[in-house]
Amino acid sequence: MSPAHRNPALTRSGNVRAGQTVKALLRLRQMILDAEIKAGERVPELAVAERTGISRTPIRAALLQLAEEGLLQPSTSGGFIVRAFDEGEVFDAIDLRGTLEGAAARRASERSLSHADLAPLRDCVGAMDSIAQRRKPGSEFFSDYVRLNERFHHLLVELANSAVLRRALEQILALPFASPSAFVLAQAELPRAREILQKAQQQHHAILNAIADGQGARAEILAREHSGLAKQNLRAVAAREADMKRVVGGALIKRRIIPATIGAEAKSRRRRRKISRK
Q1: Out of 17, 62, 73, 215, which residue is the most buried by the measure of CB atoms under 10 Å away?
Q2: How far apart (Å, rounded) are the C-alpha atoms in residues 130 and 127?
Q3: Distance (Å, rounded) from C-alpha 209 to C-alpha 218?
Q4: Residue 3 above 50 pLDDT?
């Protein structure tokens, strides 16, 4: 029997310490994502302790956890500073999520799941349909869609029945812009919001059908393609500075993503220059 089990007081004490660490972790992560502590700035351990009323021991534990997640990095002068992310890192995180979700979709399809097994995923997709089919889905509907979209991706991983895949995805999702719904709320203000939503829904249906039909390779490819939609959305959102502020953790992106429209214009100019030289 462990010391904690032999001593109930020790167990309670350990639970209190763990609870304080979780509280510190949640508070610090929110401060970083809300840009209360900006990218490149050192995390003021003493000031955070005074501001939150949490002692420095759980705050130190939370800082170590956030460094492991990738939101912080050690400072040469001691302590930790908030990390900044460039375009390549953001896209790499999204691609890696897509790879893992693709593996989850393939495993789920290979498990010969019954209609009852897939019922929660079908219900989730059906609920999202009711939002995507609206003529003008407002911000409040996008909030509902975010919740359902998170559930879809959660159920997808659960259907794979792989603890290894689940842990790997949890590590990636610690980075805010890797989340399946990272750009959905900002996307609500885009002129093509409804079109983007409908495209995402078509992909959700295709993934669900591939899993139900036991088409492992197709399910994997579709899930990976689906993650690419997040990169398209990010480029679209980047064209409007005000919308970037609605992206969770957007302030941590040190070099703004080149909007798709600007990229297309640049390609067009290069083509015209090549033609004029001929």
Answers
A1: 62
A2: 5
A3: 10
A4: no
Reduced to 3 states, what is the DSSP secondary structure of residue 85? Answer: strand
Q: How far apart are CA 184 and CA 177, in angstroms?
A: 11
Q: Whose CA is closest to 145, among 159, 125, 175, 174? A: 125
The region, left, alpha or beta by phi > 0 then psi within -120 to 50, assigned to residue 257 is beta
Q: Which of 90, 112, 135, 107 is nearest to 257 (CA)?
A: 90
Q: Whole-angstrom Cα distance, residue 220 to residue 99?
A: 8
Q: Exposure of 120 by Cβ count < 10 A (0-12 exposed, 13-18 middle, 19+ buried)? A: middle
Token pair, residue 236, equals 């679209």
What is the reported pLDDT for 86? 84
DSSP 18-82: HHHHHHHHHHHHHHHHTTSS-TT-B--HHHHHHHHT--HHHHHHHHHHHHHHTSEEE-TTSSEEE
Quote the strand ranges of 233-278, DSSP E.
Answer: none
Give the list of residues 6+ apart from residue 271 with CB closer than 8 angstroms, or none: none
Tokens of 89: 């890192």
Residue matched to tokens 């995402």: 200
Q: Which amino acid is at 80?
A: F
Q: Which of 34, 31, 13 is closest to 249 using CA atoms? A: 34
Question: Residue 167: pLDDT above 50?
Answer: yes
What pLDDT score was predicted for residue 188? 64
